[in-house]
Amino acid sequence: MRVVVIEDEPSLLAQLRQRLEDEGWMVDTSSDGRDGLYRLMEYPADVAVVDLGLPELPGLEVIRRARAQGRRLPILILTARGQWQEKVQGLEAGADDYLVKPFHMEELVARLKALARRAVGSTDDCLSLGPLVLDTQAQKVSMEGDAVALTTFEYRLLEHLARHPGQVLSKQALTDYLYPHDEDRDSNVLEVLIGRLRRKLDPQGRHAPIETLRGRGYRLTLRPDGDP
Question: InterPro entries in the record, alphabetically (predicted)?
Fold first, then answer.
């Protein structure tokens, strides 16, 4: 998964980045509200962490503007004060959950995972799409009951597709999701990853789990369990 973290305390920002990266997440960070709002609007992400006491632009205003511009990803707010009025203001601005500083990293990680699960309509750590099952906690994949060995980038790509089943995701959007935004990207890498995923998920070429829509992008054709 990918997360945007907006926090102006350098030591806490570094701790958050390290812990979330240890969880296998891609992390984009910002230390002020104005730049943070830009990253929220321009960078693909599954969840966000927003501190309320930000320079340049207060956290509440960051959330309000992001929501007003149609950004719908789950947002967890951080507050150092713990006053109930501030929590209410954050939730009314469009946040989905909150934590009061100081907090335990384990709780923050657990809350972010819960927000990400709810965003895709899941209540546990597994994404089940017919014969394809992803254990997002262990980052393990099985197809028709057989384990599928994936590299880190293959897994990230597949999980992102699985969180948007049936949706067309452009090549640019997928590339932006997979790689740091200050890193040069080889335009052929995504095609290579898609090709490898297809062969690993369907070595016999029977199911076509990932569809290419020329000029538009890629789509996971498998549907969540229970969908028509």
Answer: CheY-like_superfamily, OmpR/PhoB-type_DNA-bd, Sig_transdc_resp-reg_receiver, WalR-like, WH-like_DNA-bd_sf
pTM of the model: 0.73
CA 43 to chain centre: 10
What is the set of domains in the chain, with CATH numbers?
2-119 (3.40.50.2300), 126-220 (1.10.10.10)
pLDDT of 226 = 45
What pLDDT is attached to residue 50?
97
User: Which conformational region is residue 156 in: left (phi greater than 0), alpha (psi within -120 to 50 degrees), or beta?
Assistant: alpha
